[in-house]
Structures are given as structure tokens and as C-alpha cells.
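User: I'm curious whether this sequence folds into something compact or stays loose and floppy. Could you predict its structure so I can see for myself?
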Amino acid sequence: MGSIPLSEVNQMDQAAFVEALGWVFEGSPWVAERAWATRPWSSLEMLHQAMCKMVEAAPIALKLALVRAHPDLGSRARMAEASVQEQKGAGLDALTAEEFDRLQRLNRFYREKFGFPFILAVRGKTKGEILQALEERLESDKETEFETALEQIYTIAWFRLSEAVGA
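Assistant: Here's the prediction. I'll summarize afterward.
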């Protein structure tokens, strides 16, 4: 997928915009649908901020659906291509059997405690750092962890936007 110039993104109709960038927030094209009305954007940062503001302004049920749309890290389930590449880059496609079992166990504990999957922007992280972050964040309370999950989603969206949209 090549980079689309921001000038072109600013001129897209809503359907084209959602088609081009609706995937940036995992399984949640509503973010792009709502952000479209805030164009034109003078920079990629402004576009990202507009999209994040749509999430912040959304009702809690929609935010929770966004968080729950993310796959478990290290999952072998079907997931969006962007997630596959991000996890592969962090080495989560090359876990030993022991690491895989540990990650699955921690993911299960996390989901049972918080009611949503563990979300971490994995770009630039090692599998050891990911496992450590998961263990540490299991100590959080639900409200803190929900806010942390959203912040991680904003970071993931920034990485994805940065690859999808050019100057």
C-alpha cells in the first residue's frame, strides 16, 4: 500500500476517505467517518488529532467496542493485515512454545480482569518487553488500564497513518 498525499486525502469524499483510512483504528471505520467532516488538515498531526478527538468524544460503549476490536497479542486468530505486520515486526510470530503459552496465559488473565484485550503499540519493542509490559499492566485498575489502552490505540493509529499518508 503506497502513501497517499495529504492534499489528496483532504479532497476525498467521505466514502473514499473511509475506504482509504477507515482501517487505521482497528475494526472501527466510524472514527474516519466522523473525522472526515473536520478536514482540511494542514498536517498529518492534525489529521491524527482529529481522529483521536472522535474517539475521545464517543460514548463509552463505542470506545469499548474499539478496544475490543483489537486482537490478543501473539494470537494465531485471523486479524487485520496491519496487526499481523505489527506483531510480526515485534517477533510475536516467532515465539517459542513456552513464550507462546506464557503470552496466552497472561492475555487470558488480562482479559478476565479488565474485560478487553491487552493493547500495546508493539513497533520497536521486543517480545521480552511486550511480556514485561503485560505483566506490569496486570497490576493496574480498570479505569487506568482502559485509558492506557486508548493511548496505545492512538499510538498505533499514528504509526499506521504515518505509513498511509504522505506530505
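Summary: The CA atoms of residues 31 and 54 lie 6 Å apart. The first helix runs from residue 6 to 11.
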